[in-house]
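COMPLEX REQUEST
Ligand: glutamic acid
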Amino acid sequence: MTNKDLANLIFPDIDKDVSYYENLYPERDLKDGSVVSRFAPSPTGFVHMGSLFSAFLASKVAKDSAGVFYVRIEDTDQERKVENGVENIIRDLTNFGIEIDEGVIGEGKEKGQYGPYIQSNRKEIYQTYAKHLLEEGLAYPCFCSPEELEEIRNMQEINKEQIGYYGSFAKCRTLSLEEQSKRIKNGEKYVIRLKSPGDINHKVKVKDLIKGEIEFPENNLDIVIIKSDGLPTYHFAHAVDDHLMHTTCVVRGDEWVSSLPIHVQLFDVLGFKTPKYAHLSPIMVQDGNSRRKLSKRKDAYAAISYYHKLGIPNEAVKLYLMTIANSNFEAWYQSTPNGKLEDFKFDFKKVSSSGSLFDMDKLLNISKNYISFLSKDELYSRVLEWSKTYDQELYDLITKYKDETISFLNIEREQKKPRKDYASYSEIKKGAWYMYDELFDNYERNYELPDNVSLEEAKKIIKLYISKYYNSQDSEEEWFNRMKEMSKELGYATDMKDYRENPDKYKGSVADISNVIRVVFTTKKTTPNLYNILKILGIDRMKKRIEMFEK
Ligand code: GLU
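STATUS: Structure written out below.
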């Protein structure tokens, strides 16, 4: 009986050699320095902020270097699978504007030459490599039951020994080939374990792109590589897949750092070149006096859908994620106000190796800035699309009053320093509701008159304005000059400085006059440029609103 006989007994249907796959998936034809990275989620639900962060940075390094970013689905843990898992992941990524160059692009859809990209469809490949290790005497079947493993563990705990299946505890390691084959033929259940060549007293060093040099003891555990259902463990699949798909850089959460000893050993035993690793620290949140990891169960804003519902542009979330990722990004963005992510080169060296704190205010500020630089037409079409799903009333209004809406959104936009009114599309209704009669007429109107102007006085001001000082043909300058004339007539200062110096001489200032007008037509004391608003409203609607105010 030889190792080869045992390998054939275990995998009778595996008739290919590892060289078959090595030839099937040749080196990629990319220029030097191009990064091949991947996002490798398990289909266990939606993509949350933490995994999006990895996916985003993995795609960014590939893009920056004209490389390839691909998606692989790691579904070897069949028990954790959820329905529509793949679909939800791809939807979240695409909705978020992460371009997938290769791999899984939808339920049952893949593109690229290095597939299949769903691990459960790669069973034969893993088994071929496992068979190869069996043939080489580098792996063996293990028949230990869960109870036996538990017993070993208990003993190790009592004796304060290293926990795990190794050395003299690895009972099945020393079984003879005959014994192994007999037990297999008897129908006993078994897994396949790596015969670890490691010594815990030896140290290994790995250079992590974020954490720098990490040193750890060599792995000496005979880890499971193929489970009893014939599927690989995560560790084994990672090595085989990242080798065959020619990943050059593994970007993932740092919960995997502790598995590195196993991973580098597997690459070594299999004769593969180890990829570069970049382990990201988790995003943290402030919770009272302490910090904890962002949690998909506790923090609603950990879900990507949260941002879509609110109408926060993907680009803004990505810009924000880059501020967490690269310490120099914020300064760059401030000096490049309408800066595009494509123009910023991400650098692993500038990623903080301790978790960054999630700051929603900062995210909203970035979003405000981003939205302020959208053109009027771009913003209109985005709000239209967003409201179609999330706010039918707004959708109907802005469809019906398309031109007015665009004119309103354009106030103080498309200029060097645009207004920063909205952090999300959902805030637009709160800011623009008074432009739509359907809302203005029916909402409860709370007129925010200036403190120094009584209701009676306000009525007087608006009456005078509409009868004497309103002219639809006025330029903005003419309009403002009339405001001043009117202020004079009513005993309000026309000059703010003069007013500040001699407040007792006047009833108020020209600012109060224009604010009264603003409030009558919009109820609000702050709005975008009033002159533009009045232009959009037009005389008939203004008259109607004066009547409503006077009632
Ligand atoms: N499937 C692993 C996960 O769900 C991926 C880890 C990796 O990227 O290597 O986190």
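REMARKS: The longest helix spans residues 530-550. The chain has a mean pLDDT of 95.
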